[in-house]
Amino acid sequence: MNLLFTKNNGFPSHPDDMSGRSREIVERYELPKLTFHGLRHTYASFMVSKNVNFKIIQEQLGHVNIQVESSIVKVTFDSIFAGETTKKPSVIFTFDDAWTSQYEIAFAMMLERGFKGNIGVISNWIGIEDEIMSESQIEEMHRHGWDMFNHSANHKNLTNVTVETAVSEVLTCKNWLNERGYNRASTILAYPYGVHNKEIVEALQPHLRYARTLVEGLEPTFPLEALIGKIKNVLTLPAATLMSYVDQAITTQSTLVFCLHKIGTEQDEWETTYNRNDFSTLLDYIYEKKDLIDVKTISEWVSGNKS
Ligand SMILES: [Zn+2]
Asked: Does residue 5 sit within a domain?
């Protein structure tokens, strides 16, 4: 056995020995109060400041997420936030707007593989728009464990209306979902068009647990910046690209949130239909890797459910 910390005679030492010895050193040299575990954070910060490749830092430390936003580098440790070290990466399928093809095609394809997804409901569109699911279809998917999340009442750009209207758009949809027993994700929002600003985020903060933008990126295994959630938009990307995101989520111990619209074979005028064969290839790939990555509902992830 190759041990890093041993007694003088080479036998394994008790974890407390090391903490005790590090405390002695801190006191003797009058260093700032720092626990032995805290060295992990110091080490990560030091490596970042030396421009060491993030991949290398991640490999050395494990369970660490490193994000770069403009010039700010944010290092977070899953194990600290989630209170455990065995969290598995996960992939979450969010289907926006509740298009019928999500029920007719995606639902069956995911069910076949034992996967659950999430539907972004625009409450005032249900039962009105042709290409939008009916209440009974929504009910059926919910019964199979799918989350119905908040996509507002009318799909307005929330930054183009008053703050009061924006809040009411979100609360109307929340009430619609709750009245029907779809409580799990009624306080989880996808901003219509992904659009948000500081004012809207602040106004919605008391009403929501999580909100999804269209900002591209991976999320940590436990959501941190709860109202500016990142996604990977599938657009019309080849399955291979989406599969590489899955690999990335596995290697970086992250959560991958896919944003999808329609599923089918014919492209629509807005190019929001994802090819069903590519979707099938992606699902098979994830199924193959199911020991390494979980398919979760958005409420399971936001609630911090253990895997
Ligand atoms: Zn939408």
From this structure: no
Alpha helices in 180-262 (DSSP H): 198-204, 239-251
Number of domains making up the chain: 2
CA separation for the pair 177, 185 (Å, rounded): 9
Q: Which domain holds residue 20?
A: 15-81
Q: How far is the CA of 32 from the centre of ligand 1 (A)?
A: 50
Boundary of a domain, candidates 53, 81, 109: 81
Q: Residues 136, 258: one domain? A: yes
Neighbours of 107 (CB within 10 A): 23
> What is the whole-number distance in angstroms between the Cα of residue 191 and the centre of ligand 1?
8
Note residues around ion ligand 1 (Cβ under 5 angstroms).
96-97
Give yes or no: residues 161 and 110 share one domain. yes
Cβ pair 153, 176 in contact under 8 A? yes
Contact indicator for 130, 267 with CB cutoff of 8 Å: no
Of 213, 161, 155, nearest to 188 by C-alpha is: 213
pLDDT tens, N- to C-terminus, the chain (307 residues):
566 667 777 777 776 777 777 777 777 776 766 776 667 767 776 666 666 666 666 666 766 666 665 566 666 655 444 444 457 999 999 999 999 999 999 999 999 999 999 999 999 999 888 899 999 999 999 999 999 999 999 999 999 999 999 999 999 999 999 999 999 999 999 999 999 999 999 999 999 999 999 999 999 988 888 999 999 999 999 999 999 999 999 999 999 999 999 999 988 888 899 999 999 999 999 999 999 999 999 999 999 865 4
Distance 86 CA to ligand 1 centre (A): 34
On whether both 252 and 272 belong to a single domain, the answer is yes
224 CA from centroid of ligand 1 (Å)? 23
